[in-house]
C-alpha cells in the first residue's frame, strides 16, 4: 500500500473556473503499466515523422439566434487536401502523437483566429490509454493560448475498431470531470447508437448525415428523428443536425425544436479561417 509520501498532488489551474487535480508519482509521471509506458512514448515521436496538417473550421449554428454556436475543427492537409490524405498516414506507431497534436494544433489555430465560440475537436478513443494523462497536453495548450477549457467540446464516433465501449465511456466521464463538453458523432450510423447513450449521456449528439439528408420529404426519417428528439429531451442531451444542405431540411429541424445545425447550407469549412455565412444562411437569419 502506498503512503502519503509516495505521491505528489499537482494542481493544474488554467483559469479561475477550472482547477483540476492530477496525481503524479515522485518522478512526475502518472502510474503506468508497461503497455501504457509504450503508448506514452508514442506521443514523443521523432519530429521528422510528424504528419503535416492544418485545420479547416465549420460552424455549428444556433438557428434561433442566427449566430455561430461552435466551430468544428476538421483535419486537412497543409494546403487544404482532404482529411483522408492525412488520416491515411496514421498508423500504430504515430497514432498517439497524431491524436495529441490534433488537439493542441486545433486549439492554437482557433486561438489565433480569436474564436469566441465553442471549439469542437474530434478525438481517437484508441489513442487515449489513460484520460488523466493524455489530457495534459490539451490543458497545457489551452493555457498557452489562453483558450478557455469550458469552451472545448470533445466529439467522437463509436467505431468498429474501438477498444471497448467501457473505455470510451471512461474517457467521456473523465473529460466531463475536467469541465469539457462531450458529443457523440454520427448518431444512428450503425455503431453509434442507443447502447452507448444508455451508458453515458453526453452534452450533445450529432445526427448522422444519412438521417438528415432529404428528411423534409421522408416520413420514415422524420419519425426516427422525432423519436430521438423525445428521448434526448428526457435525457437532457442536445441534438445537432449535421449535414444540412437545403432550406427544407433546415425548416424541418427548426419546426421540431432542433436549433443547432451544421452543414453546407450555412457555410463550408474554411482552411485556417472562420468561414463566411452563405447567402442562404444570411437570408434565413432572424
TrEMBL record:
It comes from the Bacteria. This is EAL domain-containing protein. It comes from Caballeronia novacaledonica.
